[in-house]
Write a structure and sequence with these properties.
5-stranded mixed β-sheet; about 500 residues; alpha+beta
């Protein structure tokens, strides 16, 4: 006989889902699943629209990682018109660097939001703290100066997105073959020097480093818990450059195992030749996996932890020092610990800030060569774009007819890539916090939330739906009868 527990809805993540946990007669966990119950639709909505609308429309899947969708869609359009990376034609240095600048700005502010608003309160107050305290408002009461710095860090990133993308949300800058604006020297100087409304570049770097120190302090006091919580083995995948180091905008896809051996490296245009997607009747979100290894062995982890596991070095000094400490701590192995994702995210906040600093001092941003003009003979009618979104590897794939209207669109987002490993994390946490119990406790609810939230999942992207994501947990017995349920 078994029992089943359902967490429905999952809170403080974007989208809507629930957790169902099955218990046996001895109240031992025998299964745990993250159900995503929203509708998938944007890939159909876009069909029939002119191809050039894709980056503008499909970024509206999400109000959080819209820059990634915008830039990824623009790369797919470059392919379609014949100036993409699968040909000898490339967009101009100014166009690429403007896209990169906006992309890094989004990573900075997105990571800062997830880290400081959602994760730091749990590090400072504990996951068992009362919900009314374990949030950014509670943090503001306990440490108002920290929250002021966090708000300014996030605002700095948002203001830079506005300057680069043309709008604070759902940008308009990328077009087929390039961009429609550069960055003036006046605007550049505002972000370097700061003004009455935003901090300087150097202040922003200081704020970024403070986030990493918060993790170090938390880790030192809670080492056993941090290093064991939510252990979920998987392959790691991200875009890498020719040196095998992470490239958030472009590169080859590299997949490694826990010993950091390369399992597969491929041109992202060939992604669908190597990956398949499993489906389950209990979730709208698919389960991608490497075909040659099958679903269990071939499922991948993407995002900050995967990227930090894969990359061997950074070109920027502060992030490089933090990376070396991370690798030394894990003794040459890939980390599979959910809370190490928070460590990796704090490192990437610093790395993003340093990359932005480099670009702001690059004179190419003020040049006028913004677009590579495509001719009718260059038209391919199909394109693939891949970038590293804050949450991980994002793919857009479009086809259009001779009139330029979209006939096919496929999006594989980071949260979808992480679906299998998120489910493994939920089971790992459930086994640690629930075994032997037959009821849902506040501590267990919080622990499962923490495990899921480590991935910073965006289920609206993954299912292409709208809505907030609360947490529901349901407990079922061996016969499938509901014996407990709790919602947040």
């Amino acid at each position: 006989m078994s029992r089943k527990l359902i967490i429905d809805p999952v809170t403080r993540i974007e989208g809507h889902g629930k957790v169902v946990i099955q218990l046996d007669d001895d109240n031992k966990v025998i299964d745990a699943k993250l159900h995503v119950v929203e509708f998938r639709g944007f890939e159909k909505f876009i069909q029939g629209h002119p191809y050039w609308e894709a980056p503008m429309l499909l970024q509206r899947i999400c109000g959080i990682c819209f820059v990634s969708h915008h830039v990824c869609g623009a790369k797919a359009l470059d392919d379609m018109v014949g100036v993409g990376y699968s040909t000898h034609n490339l967009i101009t240095p100014t166009a690429e660097k403007m896209r990169r600048l906006g992309h890094y700005a989004q990573q900075l502010q997105s990571h800062a939001t997830a880290y400081f608003y959602l994760l730091v309160p749990e590090m400072l107050f504990g996951m068992d703290a009362a919900p009314e305290k374990r949030n950014v408002l509670g943090l503001a009461v306990a440490n108002p100066e920290l929250v002021k710095r966090v708000v300014m860090l996030r605002k700095w990133g948002q203001e830079l997105i506005t300057a680069v993308l043309g709008k604070r949300m759902h940008g308009i800058s990328s077009i087929p073959g390039g961009v429609n604006n550069n960055l003036t020297a006046e605007v550049r100087d505002r972000f370097i020097k700061g003004d009455a409304t935003i901090p300087s570049m150097e202040q922003m770097l200081d704020y970024a480093q403070e986030g990493l120190q918060l993790f170090y302090d938390f880790h030192e006091k809670n080492r056993v818990m941090v290093d064991s919580f939510g252990d979920a083995p998987a392959l790691d995948m991200c875009l890498v450059d020719d040196n095998g180091d992470v490239d958030y905008y472009h590169g080859k896809l590299r997949i490694i195992d826990n010993d950091k051996k390369i399992v597969r490296e491929l041109d992202y245009h060939d992604y669908l030749d190597h990956f398949s997607e499993a489906t389950e009747e209990w979730s709208y979100m698919k389960f991608p996996f490497l075909k040659e290894l099958g679903r269990e062995k071939g499922s991948v982890r993407v995002g900050a932890l995967a990227r930090v596991n894969i990359t061997k070095s950074y070109s920027t000094p502060l992030a490089q020092a933090a990376l070396e400490k991370f690798h030394a701590y894990n003794k040459g192995k890939s980390s599979t610990k959910a809370m190490h994702t928070n460590w990796a995210r704090a490192i990437e906040i610093i790395h993003s800030a340093e990359l932005i600093k480099e670009l702001l001092n690059d004179p190419d941003l003020q040049k006028e060569q913004l677009v590579v003009a495509a001719t009718e003979s260059m038209w391919k009618g199909e394109g693939v774009g891949v970038v590293e979104a804050p949450r991980g590897t994002l793919l857009h794939h479009y086809r259009a007819d001779k009139e330029g209207n979209i006939t096919f669109a496929n999006l594989i987002v980071a949260t979808t890539q992480n679906n299998q490993v998120m489910n493994r994390t939920v089971r790992s946490v459930a086994e640690a916090y629930l075994d032997g119990q037959a009821e849902i406790t506040e501590g267990m609810m919080n622990a499962i939330e923490v495990g899921i939230r480590a991935f910073d999942p965006c289920l609206s992207c993954a299912t292409h739906a709208l809505g907030e994501m609360p947490l529901e947990v349901t407990l079922l017995d061996a016969k499938g009868n509901q014996i407990d349920e709790r919602r947040k």
